[in-house]
Design brief:
two-stranded parallel ribbon; 171 residues; alpha/beta; 2 domains; rod-shaped
């Protein structure tokens, strides 16, 4: 009996035919890269705080480079006063009273929890910080009244939000 190929060559050809099968795409490495990329973007995106941009507000400009911290956000628009995006009082009602504080605003601000003042005298408490965003055409008497209301509600630091001018101040 004459064989066309030896047993060894047949075995080698079988192995080669098995190894010629196309392998699928290995996605493990690709998934690892995208997972690392997602975590990188999540960590870095949380370092930037962006204040809400109300279209009806035009903020004044400033040379200050200090960034506002997360805190109670009080917005004075052209027709209302908002605390953390919730309407508290109409502007007409806030300006019409004779008192130095705005009662509806004070009632809303008193809902913030009290905390001990860091570095202060023992037993001294505060509601923390408040950031006021007001239109640049807002009368100062109204801003003064809002600030007095914040002080009366035991907020320790009051900040005014402004738009930073380019080239102003040192970082």
């Amino acid at each position: 009996m004459i064989r066309s190929a030896s047993i060894r060559s047949q075995r080698i050809s079988r192995r080669l035919s098995r190894s010629r099968k196309t392998t699928g795409l290995n996605l493990v490495s690709l998934m690892d890269i995208f997972t690392i990329l997602v975590f990188f973007l999540l960590v870095n995106s949380s370092q930037v705080e962006v204040l809400p941009n109300a279209k009806e507000l035009v903020l004044p400009e400033s040379l200050s480079t200090d960034k506002p911290a997360e805190q109670v956000l009080l917005m004075i628009t052209r027709d209302a006063i908002l605390v953390n995006g919730r309407r508290v009082s109409a502007l007409d009602t806030a300006t019409s009273g004779d008192s130095a504080v705005i009662p509806t605003l004070k009632a809303e601000l008193l809902q913030a929890p009290l905390a001990p003042v860091v570095g202060g005298t023992p037993g001294q408490v505060s509601r923390g910080d408040v950031n006021i965003m007001a239109d640049k055409d807002t009368p100062f008497q109204l801003i003064k009244k809002v600030m007095a209301t914040c002080t009366d509600a035991k907020f320790s630091r009051i900040s005014l939000a402004v738009v930073s001018k380019p080239g102003g101040g040192t970082p």
